[in-house]
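Section 5.1 Outputs to date
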Amino acid sequence: MKTPRFCIQSSITSREATPCSVNHLKEVMASPHVQQICDAIKLLDGKDPEELARLKRQLPCITPHAQRFTNNRRNSANAIPSGLVMLDIDHIDNPRQLWNTLSIAPELNSGIRLAHITPSGHGLRIIAERQKGESIEAAQQRLAHTLGITTFDIAPKDLARASYLVPTSYILYIDEDALEFPSDEEAEKTASVMRDTIPLALPPHNPEQRSGLDSQEFPDTYKGIPYKTIVEQLMTVLGGKPVVGERNTYFYSMVRYIRYICDFHEAFILSVLPDLGLPLDERKGIIARAVCTARSSGIPDELKRAIVLAEKAEDKDLKDDNRITLPEPPLPTVLPKVLDTICQSIPEPFRPAMVIASLPILGALATEVRFDYLDHQQHSFSFFSMITGPAATGKSFIRQPVNLLLSPIDEQDDIERAKAEEYKMAIRASKNKKEQPEDPRACPRNNGINISIAKLLQLMDYSNGKHLIGVGEEIDTLLKSERAGSWSQKSDIYRLAFDNAKYGQMYMSDNSYNYNGPVFYNLLLTGTPNGMYRFFHDVEDGLVTRVAFASLPDMRFTSMPEFLPYSKRDKAYIITTAKWLMEQHSHVTCKQVDKAISEWLEQKRLEALESASTAMDTLRRRAAVMGFRAGYLAYVLNHYVYRKHIAKFALWVADYVLQQQMLLFGDKFEDVATRMDEDMNKKGCVQLLFPQLPETFTRNELMRLRADNNQSTNVRVILCRWAKQALIVKNPDGSYTKQKCA
């Protein structure tokens, strides 16, 4: 008798996951219930995410990676592997056409068991066989490579991952015989082979090698940092403490990270992690499964970040003593008139963030204005802004003024989208005709942030050098595309957009868009601090330095701030100004802004040198660019007439951007410098300077000594290290004295 190869749930919210035979699968897919829900999803066409999620929750789902669960509850810890792997390809205009293209390849016969269009109608899901000794991640990569697919969703990799069912008409291919095991014995054989697979390049976990390490011998610290602090910071990196319903999978994730610094020892891991309210036996079971799952050869980035945060927490008092902080510059009393009009209805503490939020929109409106920077390179009004604040602090206050500014672009976009829809209908009508309708190259410019790479490149091609604009009120939306595997391309595009540099890609596939040209793209994001740090997790990739950040005031335990409505006159003026900006197309010069920013750059260079702040020296450069562009924007808004408030506005933007970047990411940039200094210290360079210093010395004396030896003048980390090693003590007057024991 055949054995079901996967489980089914009546909905994603159902508690019970039961084995599903092929006959039962076919009955469910043929049901009117599934057809009606997918028809409703198709009508939505992704326009209402909340309604889409509600409808999906009503669909039955299967678990391709898991044959069954020991307690009939869908969770990874109790999953019995099925030997199958699921591959998701999202954001496809025509998944059926893509499948037909793939099906031409002879590789189709190499293990694919099921292929269907996803409920949205814009995705393709393929279920295939895993190979012996192959992890889910490796199987996904192999299958994608075999089929020539470059971008796919990397999130579906745990054993309990569910897959929504679709109507029979959505099925593209099914191998019914292979979707059931011939017998229970065959099912158990497959499960035993797939249960603890790891990459073949890595040796398997061997508990015998650590049998002598019992619970009494576990160290309390990792490289001098308490494990307790590292675990606390890891929980912060993972989004905070889990709520009931998330604890099991959350604990599983923590095990997979912390194992890298616990010698992959199960008892060690158990002693380090909090119980999260889970029973001891359940935690042991989760650890046993998670510790042997696929692993990389190095420590994951999330754990690296937790270790850095933990080290900072331990050294907080010492580092705070030397930390460079900048005061928040007060908003100028005179603003460009349109910004003054917008800010009059907004409480004063929120006005700086509103100004920063307006820059990408105003820049996209004045998209055809050009000017030369201090290095004589041509610039445009390219801005990326990020507004951050805790949950429920009123980040949505930017929505109305932003919508008013965007209204002329949105009106034009309606026309462009109508052109695109008309062209699409004409293509369908002339499907089998020789003569095809001419592409009108419709280009709506305001498309949100949930946009595929191919579509984004097409719109850049069609835009003729005009800025596209993306507005996202939740940065987690972009995080989803990062997890879906398309982030590396988007990250490149975002960085190049700052300088309108060229981006190019060339593929043979008709499902991708080929483009090679300049990138004109402005972006406005909002989100919580945790979401922001999850998104901007790598300060070395260059994106952080290209973003104007703004932090909202802490509104905890305060009364609701008063946001006044805009009058008809104010609305009319904002919209009129926006339309006027869209008509501007010239190359402008404002020598007063040039001079002000040039002097500001030199001033900040000297401040960075005096304070030995590598972060300030790094961040000041692009902060100056953003201040420069803001000054020219104010000049254009003042109808090309210079007034003193224009240079003051440019300097305020530069100061504010630098202050916020230092506040949010300054320590991380200093950490980069620390690693460089540590590499130098390993060669003995730094320590050799210690004997050359007098018994009592100042920071400036150390800086001069390092400069004379062609070393970095960032002495903050050096002083911190010497103090930590008890080589020096800081005096009340700010000087340092060598310890006698040194």
